[in-house]
Amino acid sequence: MGNPMKIRAASKDGVTEVKVLISHEMETGQRKDAAGAIVPAWFITELTAKHGDKVVLSSEFGSSVSKNPYLAFKFKGGAKGEKVIVSWKDNKGDTRTDEAAIG
Amino acid sequence: MNNQRRTVLKSGSGAALLGMLAAAGIITPGMALADWNKAAFDAKSMADTLKALGAGQPADSKDVQVTGPDIAENGAVVPVGVASTLPNVSMVAILIEKNPNALAASFVLPEGTEANVQTRVKMGQTSNVYALVKSDGKFFMATKEIKVTLGGCGG
């Protein structure tokens, strides 16, 4: 299921900035190991962020997003204590969901 | 999280449907990605990627900014950001011209989410990085060259 994401959400002047750090290998499928065999691709393909029930960002990743992906974005609204929920899914079908309170 | 899709996956008919799709070669087993735009992410060249995204020929715009370092010492972790002051931005994508697959990431921004995203991408070599933005149904683009130094040789 992967390791927990680090999510920081801070509200300022009616805009909430969300920063997410995900723990994931993000293997491109183009690297070779010491024996010359191709390391199979393993990367996050979809990521969705919600503020409560409302989707505030839905993204699709390719394999060229860095290992342990970082993502930052801003949305209007959001008050202290409300929840931001982030979910991802990788190309092996693994998923993970974490949430954080807006600070 | 698309709960409906998960439900479909769990139900028997969903499994049968997946089997059919796999048999038809539409999806390969283990890569049942219903929403993921495979054509766009598999496209090699900029032109093919833009076509797969339905962007056609985006106009260059000064209202789109690509942020990133001029020189990236480590091509594995290059911070790249896209910001735009255009109205009603519904989609943002980051493309790296000389990567094996140009498209790095695309973001769908619902109303209320600002056209300002930052992430980190891998770059195989020095390349132009493009930010593609969809505003009011039209596509706009901006570019920035990011130099990647290999093995500390400078460059």
Question: How does this structure look, described?
Answer:
Chain B: Pfam families: SoxY. Chain B: InterPro entries: SoxY, SoxY_sf, Sulphur_oxidation_SoxY, TAT_signal. Chain B: It comes from Candidatus Dechloromonas phosphorivorans. Chain B: Residues 52-153 form the Ig-like SoxY domain. Chain B: This is Thiosulfate oxidation carrier protein SoxY. The complex is a heterodimer of chains A (103) and B (155). Chain A is elongated. A 4-stranded antiparallel β-sheet of chain A has the order 4-3-6-7, with no helix packed on it. Chain A is 0% helix and 50% strand. Chain A has no helices and 7 strands. Chain A has one domain (6-101): Immunoglobulins (Immunoglobulin-like, Sandwich), CATH 2.60.40.10. Chain A is mostly beta strands and 103 residues long. The mean pLDDT of chain A is 93. In chain A, a hairpin with a 2-residue loop joins strand 3 (44-51) and strand 4 (54-61). Chain B is α+β, with helices and mostly antiparallel strands and 155 residues long. Chain B folds into 2 domains: 1-36, no CATH class; 38-148, SoxY domain (Immunoglobulin-like), CATH 2.60.40. Chain B has 4 helices and 9 strands. In chain B, strands 1, 3, 5, 6, 8 and 9 form a 6-stranded mixed β-sheet that branches. The longest helix of chain B has 12 residues, at 12-23. Chain B is globular, with a radius of gyration of 18 Å. Residues 21-33 and 151-155 of chain B have low confidence and may be disordered. Chains A and B meet through strand 3, strand 4 and strand 5 of A and strand 4, strand 6 and strand 7 of B. Strand 4 of chain A pairs antiparallel with strand 6 of chain B, so a sheet runs across the interface.
